[in-house]
Amino acid sequence: MHPIFASIAIAGPETVLTLGSLAALMLGTFTGGGRALTVTSLFAVAILGLAGFTLLDAPAGPSVAFDGLYVADAFSAFLKVIILAAAAASVLLALPWLADHNAKGSSSARFEYPVLLLLATLGMAIMVSANDLLTLYVGLELAALPSYVLAAFHRGDDRSAEAGLKYFVLGALASGILLYGVTLVYGFAGSTQLDVIAGIVGGQQERSLGLLFGIVFILSGLAFKVSAVPFHMWTPDVYEGAPTPVAAFFAAAPKAAALGLMARVLVVAFPGQVAPDWQQIILFIAIASMVLGAVAAVAQTNIKRLLAYSSIANIGFALVGLAPGSPGGISALLFYICVYVAMTLGSFLVVLQLARADGSPVETMADFAGLSKTRPGLALAMAVFMFSLAGIPPLLGFWPKFAVFQAAINAGLLGLAIVGFVASVVAAFYYLRLIKIMYFDPPATALAPAANPVNGAMIAGLALFCSPIGMLALSPLAAATARAAAALFPA
Amino acid sequence: MTAALAFWLFAVVLLTAALMVITAKNPVHSVLWLITCFFNAAGLFILLGAEFLAMLLVIVYVGAVAVLFLFVVMMLDIDFRALRRGALNNLPLGLFVAGIILTETLLVATGWQAGQGVIVHEALAGPPAGMSNTQWIGSQLYTRYVFVFSMSGLLLLAAMVGAIVLTHRRRIGVKKQSIAAQTARTPAGTLGVGKAPLGQGVEL
Fold first, then answer.
1. Are A347 and A386 in contact (CB under 8 A)?
2. Cys-Cys with A128: which of A260, A358, B114, B169 at CB 3.0–4.6 Å?
3. pLDDT score, position B120
4. Is A106 inside any structural domain?
5. Measured between beta carbons, which residues in chain A are less than 8 angstroms from residue B169?
6. In which region does residue B199 sit, left (phi positive, over 0), alpha (psi from -120 to 50) or beta (all else)?
7. Which of A352, A340, A344, A339 is CA-nearest to residue A378?
8. B112, B119, B166 ranked by CB distance to A190: nearest
9. Alpha helix (H) ranges present in A354-440?
10. Which residues of B lie inside 8 Å of A (Cβ-Cβ)?
C-alpha cells in the first residue's frame, strides 16, 4: 500500500472534516429553501462528532505523517477534543440567531455558516498537529480566512462589515509578519520541520541572531492570533461588531488552537539554549495581557467588549503556563485552555439567550440589571461563570489559575506570579460588578421571554462544569493534561 | 562579470521602481512601476537559476495581479492625493518610529555579517542532476508537500465560499434575460387581433 494511505489514516480528524465540509456544502446547496440551514448545521455537528470519534483509537505515541509535515500525539488529540467540542457548540448556539434572522427575511441566515465553521475547524485541527512551519501557516490561514467571513456574516449591519474588514486587514498583516519570520528561521536553520530545527539549533555553538529575529516575527504573528497584548487592538472591536454567536466562536476554539500551536512551536522547535530568549518575550506578553485585560475592562459598558478584554486577560494567564517551558507548565496551560473555553462559551451563551422586549439583542451591562428577579436561572448561571472567571476558590476557574501560578513559581518566576495575582484581583472587580448589577440593581430593561431549550441546556451543562461539582473532573483532567504535555517533551 | 553587471542593473532598477511605486502621484503610474518591479525581480530569479519562479512571477503577478490592480485603480474614483494629505500629518511620528527601528536594527547588526549562520541543506541546494527546476518543484509539490498543497486548495475553496457569502444577494426587481422564456413564446401568447372601431382607438 502506498504510504500516503497510512498518512491519511493518521490524520483521521482532518480527513473527516475535509470530506465533511465538502459534503455539507453540497447538502446545503441541494436542500435549498428554509430547511437548508438547520439540515446543514445538524450535519456539521454530526461531522464534528465523527471527527472526534476518530480520535478515540489514536495511538498514544506520536505518529508522524506526510513526510514529517503532520504529527498526531496526545497533545494534539487533547486540544482537538476541545476544539471540536467548542466548534460543535458554536454551530448549535448560532441556530436560534440564524433562525431569527431567517424569520425576519434577512440575508444573514445562510447555510454557509456551518460550512465556513467546519472549514475553520479543519484549519485549527491542522494547527495543533503542525510539525512543520508550512503546515502551521496553511492551518493558520485555513482557520483565519473563514473567520474573517464569519465576522462580516451579518453583512447588512455596518458594524459587522467593519469588524470583518478590520479583522481581515490586521489578520493579513499578522500573517505577513509570521511568514517573514518563517523565511528567516528557514534561512538560518535550513529546515522548516520543527524537530529538525531543534536538532540544528541545538548543534550550533553560539545562537544565531537571524534565527532570533525569525522567532520574534513568528511570535508576533502568533500573538496576534491569540490576541495577546501588543497585538490585541482588534479584539474588542471585532467581538463587538461581529454577530454574538460568531464572537462566542472566536473567543473559544481559535484561542485553544493558537495557544496549542504556540506551545508546540516554542517547545519542540526552540528548546535548550534559545529557550531563555523566547521565554523573555512570553513573559512580557503574559504580563502585559494580564494587566491590560484587567485594567481596560473596568471602563467598559458593552458586555461583548467586556468579554473581549476578559479573554485578553485570560490569554495572559494561560501564557503564564507557557513561560516556564516545562512539562508542568504546559499541562497547566492545557488545563487553563480547557476551563477557559467552558467559561467563556457559557458567558457568551447567556448573552445570546437574552433579548430585549423589542427583539433587539442585549448589548450593555445595564441590560443585566435585576436579572436575578426576571430570569433567576440565567442570572445564577452567569454568576457562576463570572465567579469562575474571577477565580474564586470553590469554583472550577480557580484551579487552572492556581496551576499556572504554581508552574511559574516552580520555575522561579516569582515576579510573574505576583503580577498575575494582582491582575486577577483587579479583574475580579468587573466580574463582581456584573454580579452586583444582576442581583442588587432594580430591573431596568424589559426582556423578551424568548429562550432556546438547546442553548439553555448547554448553559446548564457548562455552569455545572464550572461550579464546585466540576471539581470531580479535576483528576481525570490532570491525568489527561499531563499525558498531553509529556508528548511535547521527548523522553 | 556579466552576471555581476546584470545583478546590479536589475537590483538598481528594482529599487528605483519600488521607490517610484510609493512616491508616484498618479496611482496608474504606481501600478506601472510595480510591473517594472516584478520584471526586474524576475530577472534576479533568473540570475539565481530559478527560471520557473521567474516565469511564475511574470505570468501570475504581471499577467494577473497587476492587471487586476490596474482595473481596480481605474474603476475606483479615489482621490489619492487627499488620502496622502492626512498621512503627511503623521509623518514626524512615522519617521520617529522608523528611526528607532532602524537604529535598533543597526545596533544589532553591527559586528554581524550578512549571510553568516545561513545553512543550506544539502537536499535543498538545487535540483538533482538531469532534472530541471520546474520538474523538481513539481515532484516535491505533489509528493512530499502534497498535504499542504491540497490544504491550500481547500483554502481557496474557503475564500470562494466566503466571497460568495459576502457579495451574492438575491435582488428583487432586476431585469434579467430569460432565454427559456424567450424561446417558449408563441404567437398565441403575444399577438392578438382585434377590431378597431372608427374614431375610437383601441384598448390594449
1. yes
2. A260
3. 54
4. no
5. 107
6. left
7. A352
8. B119
9. 371-374, 376-390, 398-410, 414-440
10. 108, 112, 117-121, 124, 143-148, 151-152, 154-155, 157-159, 161-162, 164-166, 169-170
Cβ neighbourhood burial of B84 (10 Å; 0-12, 13-18, 19+): exposed
CA distance A202 to A188: 13
Give the pLDDT score at A248: 92
Residue A297 lies in a domain: yes
Q: Measured in whole angstroms, how far is the alpha carbon of residue A244 from the centre of its chain? A: 15
Distance CA A255, CA A204 (A): 34
Please give the single-letter amino acid code of residue B15: L
Distance CA A139, CA A121 (A): 10
| pLDDT for the residue B41 | 92
CA distances from A155 to A149, A251, B168 (A): 9, 20, 11
> With contact defined as beta carbons under 8 Å apart, do A110 and A94 qualify?
no
Residue A64, helix vs strand vs coil: strand
CA angle A61, A62, A66 (to 5 degrees): 145
* 3-state secondary structure (DSSP) of residue B179: helix
pLDDT digits (tens, 9 = 90+) for A332-372: 999 999 999 999 999 999 888 887 777 777 888 888 888 88
Residue A70, beta-bridge partner list: A65, A130
Which residues in chain A come in under a pLDDT of 70? 59-60, 105-108, 450, 491
Tell me the pLDDT tens digit for each residue of B73-122: 888 776 666 766 666 777 888 888 889 888 877 776 665 555 555 555 55
Whether A279 maps to a domain, the answer reads: yes
> From B162, which residue of chain A is nearest by alpha-carbon distance?
A149
As given in the structure block, the three cell numbers for residue B2 are 556579466
Q: Residue A19, Cα to own-chain centre: how many angstroms?
A: 24
Triad A53, A58, A59: Cα angle to 5°: 165
Q: Are strands A70-72 and A63-65 parallel, antiparallel or unpaired?
A: antiparallel
Residues A282-303: tens digit of each pLDDT:
999 999 999 998 888 888 888 8
Distance CA B166, CA B161 (A): 9
* pLDDT value of residue A173: 92
Domain extent at residue A362 = 274-491
For A110, which of B124, B145, B165 is closest by C-beta distance?
B165
Count of domains forming chain A: 1
- Look up residue B169 and give its three cell numbers: 444577494
Low-confidence ranges of chain B (pLDDT < 50): none
Q: Are A391 and A428 in contact (CB under 8 A)?
A: yes
Identify which of B148, B169, B170 has the shortest CB distance to residue A138: B148
In a domain, A398, yes or no: yes
Q: How far apart are CA A158 and CA A161, in angstroms?
A: 5
Q: Quickly tell me which residue has 479535576 as its cell.
A: A474
